[in-house]
Fold each of these.
Amino acid sequence: MNVRQTNGALLWGDLAIVETNDDALIIRREYDGDVIHCIFNFGDKEIAMPKINSLGEILFAANGANQNTIPALGALIIK
């Protein structure tokens, strides 16, 4: 299943940068009341899951990311 093709927030939603630093990027996409958070770890070390308002259903996880940690070069998309 292609997560982006099945989610309006990822296709058409407004984009806001929630947090950025040397290793991590968190963006928020919102469309028609649907809110998605995308967390990316571009670093070479695992990072703790950042505090964000919603920790709901995981739509996509890369490189073993979960609701607690994002590994090096990992990503998580949460609805």
Amino acid sequence: MTYQDMKNSLAILDSPVEKLELLMDFGKMLVPIPADADCNEIVGCSSFVQICKKDGQFFASADSAVVRGIVALFLAMI
């Protein structure tokens, strides 16, 4: 799903609760991180967040459903 698709999907929802649920659904779409990817932890976040790269492709994980959704949005932007 592209960033524009995500943005459009969020824009059509009126309810903040529905927007939050959709954001968390975006996080469920993250591709699993390959075992041999080069990963870095995001320091300063209260959740555990990793941003990883392999062969020019970025991957991410987080222990919070909301943060996973936010990270999915960020990854869709690049």
Amino acid sequence: MPDSVEALGFQAFREIGYGIYFQFSNTLKTIGSKVFSGLGLTDVYLPDSVEYIGDLAFQYAGIKRLKLPANPNLVIGE
């Protein structure tokens, strides 16, 4: 994902497949609702730049390992 990406909108990658690999940009600030719902990710490492994760962003995504950002201002859900 290019460093110019700061936000991922509602259902951006919902149910597009399994075994998908994402390398998040270090400038990513917002992950909208249901962005990765049903995607089949196993490992998710979010950069410290993330400030907001929307409702159900990773619903049914099959995550086994998750690293949340070390951001004291992180907001999850509404």
Amino acid sequence: MISIKAISQPAFETVTLDELKDHLVLSGNQEDDYLRGLILAATNDAENFCNRCFATQTIEEGLRYFPKIDIRLSRSSVQ
């Protein structure tokens, strides 16, 4: 079993708050915190589903034991 932990977060969002608000035709800022949470959750779900990192970040992987074969990283960048 592999444990994966993000050490450093990406320097940019894959979808910005302004892009999401434009797409949803929203104005004002009363829902900004909620929308940022949705962006983060959707990005994390998509990265987990695709087994990829969409932006440069540092990932730590932990193994239960040292494998006898090659070690393969479970995630790779798409940049």
